[in-house]
């Protein structure tokens, strides 16, 4: 009984220490807010706005539009659909923004489906998720601290609306490396 209680106390202390270590300080939040202002400018870039506007207007080929999350996860990064989203003009723009601080960028159309990205995302569609739905309502979104599966580093994602004539037409999500924000 004493061993179980000691293990419970140790586990509780460990969880509390992790939660404390993973909080965002006011100084780090100020850096996130400054980066959000910069990312809002990226979302207003004509290349980004055009990519979302065109995809919303033209739609996707039926097979791509009907893609499920499981089908997306099974696709190779060499698949033409997957490669096309990083090789198009918006994808190249987003890739140019990645550095030690920016871990990933992805652009979604009004339906939450990818229009471009810097690297393949874990999800094909983000509709129904706050990271897409909040920007589609004209709001900024900031997620919790999470582990980036690709890099193995802690990050926080933020999302801004892509606006056309002041109206949200898509979302731009950017992952920020927490370690770099703390420097």
Second CATH tier, the architecture: 2-Layer Sandwich
- What's the helix count? 9
Poorly predicted spans: 4-21
The percent of residues in helical segments reads 40-55%
| SS strand fraction | 15-25%
CATH topology value: Beta-Lactamase
| SSE pattern | HHHHHHHEEHEEEH
The Rg value, from CA coordinates, equals 19 Å
Helix/strand/pairing category: alpha+beta
Oligomeric grouping of the chains: single chain
The figure for the number of domains is 1
**Distance between the ends:** 44 Å
- CATH uppermost class: Alpha Beta
Give a description of the structure:
The protein is of the alpha+beta class and 183 residues long. It has a single domain (24-181), classed as Beta-Lactamase (2-Layer Sandwich). Helices cover 49% and strands 22% of the residues. It has nine helices and five strands. It has helices at 2-21, 26-43, 46-58, 62-65, 69-74, 80-87, 89-97, 130-136, 178-181; strands at 102-108, 114-117, 141-147, 154-164, 167-177. It has a five-stranded antiparallel β-sheet, sandwiched between helices. The radius of gyration is 19 Å and the shape is globular. It starts with a helix and ends with a helix.
